[in-house]
Amino acid sequence: MPVINEFFLDLPENYLFSDIAKRVKKYKEENPEADIIRLGIGDVTLPLPKVAIDAMHKAVDEMANADTFRGYGPEQGYEFLRQAIAEDYKRRGVNLDIDEIFISDGSKSDLGNFTDLLDRDNRIAIIDPVYPVYIDSNVMFGRCGKFGEDGRWSNLIYIPCTADNDFIPDFPSEVPDVVYLCYPNNPTGTVLTKEQLSKWVDYALEHNIIILFDSAYEAFISEDNIPHSIYEIEGADKVAVEFRSFSKTAGFTGVRCGYTVVPKKLNFKGKNGVEGNLNRMWCRRQTTKFNGTAYIVQRAAEATLTDEGRRETKELVNYYMNNVSLLRKSLQGIGLEVYGGCNAPYIWIRVPKGETSWSFFERMLKEKHIVSTPGVGFGPSGEGYLRITGFGKYEDTLRVIDRLKNWKL
Ligand SMILES: *Cc1c(COP(=O)(O)O)cnc(C)c1O
After folding, report:
1. In this structure, are 164 and 106 located in the same domain?
2. Which of 137, 247, 249 to mutate to test the pocket of ligand 1 (most atoms within 8 A of CB)?
3. Residues 219 and 329 placed together within one structural domain of the fold
4. Which of 50, 53, 105, 217 is 20 to 30 A away from residue 365, measured at CA?
C-alpha cells in the first residue's frame, strides 16, 4: 500500500492572492463603474529587452539547422552562460569558479529544491515577513511542525523584521542550523548594509550554520554600501548559498532562468558524521532530477549580461524604480509611514493607527480604487503593513498618485 508524504497535508491553502482577487471582484460587481488600478502585483509588466529577443531568434534558427541544433544540454547550464555570470560577479570583486554556478529555470525551483540536501531535523530560521516558498518547501519535509492559530509554525524560528527594529534581523534566541535571508527584501523592500550582513556571516561562521541568501532583487540596489552579493563579505563562501534570477532583473518571469551559487568550500556533516560537500551534492541532485533550462533561454540570459544587455536591463529597472520613487514620495506626502522603495521595487506601508493590514487594504480599494497586498499575507510580522509595487505602468502610477492627493487618512 502506498504511503503519501503526509507533510504536504500540513500546508494550509495559501489564500492571499485568491482572497485579494475575491474582494476586488466583489467590489467591482457592486461598483461596476469603479476604475481599479492594481499595485499589488509582484510580476514585471514591460516586454523583454531587445538583446534577449534577438538572442532568442538567433538561437531558434540554430535549432532549425542540423549543424547547430542542440539536444540535451549540461544540467548545470551551458558554459557560455556560467562564464558570463562569473564575469558579472568579478565586477563586484567576487571570484567564482564556473563549477560553483548552477543555471536553472528560476530561483523559486532552486530555493524549494535545495532543502533536498538537508536532513529533516535541521532547525530552520526565516526572517518574517517573507517570501512563502522558504517555509512551504521545508514544511513538505516535515521540518516546521504544525501550523497554529496564531499563524506560526510550531517548529520554525521566526526573526521579526519590522519598523520596531528598523527591519534589521536580530540573532534569534535559539541558534538555528539554516537561515534564509532575502535582500533586497520582498515584501518590505528593505536592505542590509555591508556591516549588517557581515554580522550574519560572522554569526554563521561562529555557529557553523548555513545561510541561504536570496538576492533576486540585486539589480534594484541604488545606494552604496549595500552588498549585491553575500560573497562580497569575507568568509561567506564557507557558509552561504546564493540564489539569483533573471526574472525581475531582465523581465524573465515568463521565460524562466535563474542560477544558484554553491561554493566548493561548503562542507557539512551528516547524522552519521560523514562529511559532504554541498557543491558536489547539489551537482548530483541537479544532474539526477533536473534537465537544465532551454538553450534558447540561456542564450537570452547571456545576452542580458553583455554591455548592451546591461544598458537595456538597467532601463527596465529604472522604469520600475522611477514608479516606486514617485509612489514613495506621494505616500509620504499624505502622512503615511513608508519603508523600502529605494533599493527594491517594493514599498512597505505602515497602516494608520487602529487599522489592520486587511482593513486598510479594503479602505484603499473602496476609497481610492487601488489594489495593494496586505502585509499579514507574508507572515505574522507583516500585520499592520501593506505592500505596493512599482511593477505597474508609469501612467497608472501617475493616476494612483493623483488619487492619493488629499486622501484623508
Ligand atoms: C521573484 C522572486 C524570486 C525569483 O523567482 P523566479 O523563480 O526566479 O522567477 C525569488 N525570490 C523572491 C523573494 C522573489 O520575489
Report:
1. yes
2. 247
3. no
4. 217
pTM, to two decimals: 0.97
Q: For residue 246, give the ligand 1 atom closest to its CA.
A: 8
Among residues 255, 275, 257, which one has the least CA distance to residue 266?
275
Ligand 1 lining (C-beta closer than 6 Å)? 106-108, 131, 182, 186, 214, 216, 245, 247-248, 253, 258
Residues of the domain holding 274: 52-305
Neighbours of 407 (CB within 10 A): 17
Q: What is the CATH number of the domain that holds 400?
A: 3.90.1150.10
* 378 Cα to the center of ligand 1, angstroms: 14
pLDDT digits (tens, 9 = 90+) for 145-173: 999 999 999 999 999 999 999 999 999 99
Start-to-end C-alpha separation, the chain = 60
pLDDT for 265 equals 98
> How many angstroms does the Cα of residue 409 sit away from the middle of ligand 1?
33
Give me the residue label for grid cell 554569526: 203
When pLDDT is cut at 50, 70 and 90, the band that residue 359 belongs to is: very high
If one counts the domains in the chain, the total is 2
Among candidates 392, 391, 373, 389, which has minimal Cα distance to 340? 389
Q: Are residues 369 and 332 in the same domain?
A: yes
Q: How close is the Cα of 109 to the center of ligand 1, in Å?
A: 9
User: Of ligand 1's atoms, which has the minimum distance to the CA of residue 109?
Assistant: 7
| Residue to mutate (ligand 1; options 126, 185, 190, 214; most atoms within 8 A of CB) | 214
Q: What are phi and psi of 288, to 5 degrees?
A: -85, -45
Q: Are residues 98 and 197 in the same domain?
A: yes
Domain final residue pick, 273, 305, 337: 305
